[in-house]
Amino acid sequence: MRVLGLDVGDRRVGIALSDETGTIASPHGVYTRRSLGEDAAHLAALARKLGAGAIVVGLPLNMDGTEGEQARKARELAEAVAREAHLPLHYTDERLTSAEAERAMVEGGLTRRARKKREDALAAVLILQAWLDRAPRS
Predict the structure, then answer these.
(1) Residue 15 is part of a domain; what is its CATH number?
(2) Given pLDDT bands bounded at 50, 70 and 90, which one contains residue 118?
């Protein structure tokens, strides 16, 4: 089963997709946000088009593990997408994924401009891969 991974931000949503076995996450791109309704419709349509069987969204928890405003915003979009796509929704802790994505790209020698274009999608890959690594296999 393919799984769609999302890194929800205020302006952009990083998108990742697993392979059909649900083992490996790959970047799929970045969506620029418009409004909650448009965002949910677009991402739900994308999930259907890609044949996703579930959605995983990173929750930006505070360092003490509590949820703040950004986590609330991520949940709001995630629930709207899952409702529209009629797919199960899972959350995973995304603390430090953006920093990890940035570090990997710096180590890979990408320019600042190239890193900015890829950061959100790579963060989505890290979120999805972390969830896939913990998900039970059937």
Answers:
(1) 3.30.420.140
(2) confident
